[in-house]
Amino acid sequence: MGALSASNKVAARRRVSRVSPASIVPPARIGFVGLGRMGHPMARNLARAGYRIVAHDADRDALGRACDATGAEAPGELKAAAERCEAVITMLPDGEAVRSVLMGPGDCLLAGFSRGSVLIDMSSSSPVGTRELGARLAERGVAMLDAPVSGGVRKAADATLSIWWAGMRRLSRAAGRFSGPWASRFSSRARSAPGTP
């Protein structure tokens, strides 16, 4: 899938026009998929900031530790997690893992997202793959923020990560507020519609 045409960019903007940054402030429910060495402390810091966590991880031990640390709900299915949340964060090893939890096959986030939902991908994903996924989500009225992080496990634990935000203009403007539980430094770059460069 290549870049969106001009007409498709306009259509994408219309499909996600109901997305509001106001929906992702405490005590919003935030889905968190990927609760390993980076994801666990990040989810814990979100919970400390007043967000209600809905957790998912294929590793039951990692999921259990995260639920103990955050008081998270764990519905067991990606679809159910997406249905309960204003936004879902993915913190996974690579873009293929993100695509799998988002699109399937089988249980997936896309099956549970409603129009106006927000996906925040903080994984180590390729820019091309992220734009393709953003375009697919825009077709369903779901906004995507690309938010890779730098700093490692220690900085994830003490909330001093660096975060680079890119995505829909109104959401990227809210990046500073949403960075607070995680980061000592952030930058943001708006795109006219999810999935576009």
Summarize the structure.
The protein is an alpha/beta fold.
The CATH class of the domain at 25-158, by name, is Alpha Beta
Largest sheet: 8 strands, mixed
**What are the secondary-structure elements, in order, as H or E?**
HEHEHHEHEHEEHEHHE
Measure the end-to-end span: 13 Å
* Large-scale geometry: globular
State the helicity in percent bands.
25-40%
Total number of strands: 8
| Annotated CATH topology of the domain at 25-158 | Rossmann fold
Count of DSSP helices? 9
Q: Supply the CATH architecture of the domain at 25-158.
A: 3-Layer(aba) Sandwich
Q: Radius of gyration from the CA trace? A: 15 Å
Low-confidence stretches: 1-17, 192-197
Task: Output the CATH homologous superfamily of the domain at 25-158.
Answer: NAD(P)-binding Rossmann-like Domain
Tell me what portion of residues adopts beta-strand conformation: 15-25%
Overall structural class, as computed from helix and strand content, comes to alpha/beta
Mean pLDDT: 84
Topology overview:
Layout: H1 6-15, E1 29-33, H2 39-48, E2 52-56, H3 60-70, H4 78-84, E3 87-90, H5 95-103, E4 118-121, H6 127-139, E5 143-146, E6 149-150, H7 152-157, E7 161-168, H8 169-172, H9 175-179, E8 183-191
Parallel strand pairs: 1-2, 1-3, 3-4, 4-5, 7-8
Antiparallel strand pairs: 5-7, 6-7
